[in-house]
Amino acid sequence: MELKLFFVPDTDPDLHALIAKLDDDLMQRYPKEDIFTVDFHAPYVKTMKFAVGYIDDRAVACGALRPLDEESTELKRFFVDPAYRKQGIASRLLAFLEGEALRQGKRWIRLEAGAPQPEALALYMKHGYSSIPRFGEYVACASSLCFEKAIGGAESVV
After folding, report:
1. Residues 40-60: tens digit of each pLDDT
2. What are residue 89's phi and psi, to 5 degrees?
3. C-alpha to C-alpha distance for 65 and 45, rounded to whole angstroms
4. Using CA atoms, how far apart are residues 17 and 72, in angstroms rounded to an integer?
5. What is the CB neighbour count within 10 angstroms for residue 81?
6. Which of 72, 80, 130, 147 has a CB 3.0–4.6 Å from the CB of 68, allowing a cystine?
7. What's the fold here for domain 3-109?
8. Hey, where are the domains in the chain?
């Protein structure tokens, strides 16, 4: 079982199917008003980089990077199909996206998650993400927990 990771356009049907599964999962964990989705009709989507992971031609994981500023990007829409969890897929996808952020010249990756996602929080902390104050659209959301990782030798600015 070999994982293959690819960047895909924002119109990719496998990407949309995985994001629909992610949204369903989040709806089970959070109140609707605490879920931050991606509006695929918004102009900012064209600045995002989306990735999908495949095992035996089956789409099993997705994630994205959304530029925040010159030096930082945000990890978005990160998801592994529950049937494929605990196989190292999330760690490999995270490393793949971190590598892309470095290629883009970014120095920090930020993200938002919440206490109802303990497996995600454990993954991010395991890979060197540290808690930071809520940022951007998450500032007023009490359930949001935000994290940051310095990449490429950068020091945290938050």
Report:
1. 999 999 999 999 999 999 999
2. -65, -45
3. 10
4. 28
5. 19
6. 72
7. Aminopeptidase (3.40.630)
8. 3-109
Tokens coding 132: 């930071």
Helix/strand/coil for 114: coil
Tokens of 154: 């950068």
Compute the CA torsion angle 122, 126, 139, 78 (nearest 10 deg): -70
CA distances from 23 to 3, 79, 108, 142 (A): 23, 10, 26, 19
d(CA 57, CA 30): 31
Q: Is the dihedral of CA 126, 85, 68, 32 positive or negative?
A: negative
Residues 94 and 123 sit within 8 Å (Cβ to Cβ): yes
Residues 6+ apart with CB under 8 A from 48: 10, 38, 64, 65, 66, 67, 76
What is the Cα–Cα distance from 137 to 153, expressed in whole angstroms? 27
- The whole model's pTM is what? 0.92
Contact 127, 150 (CB under 8 A): no
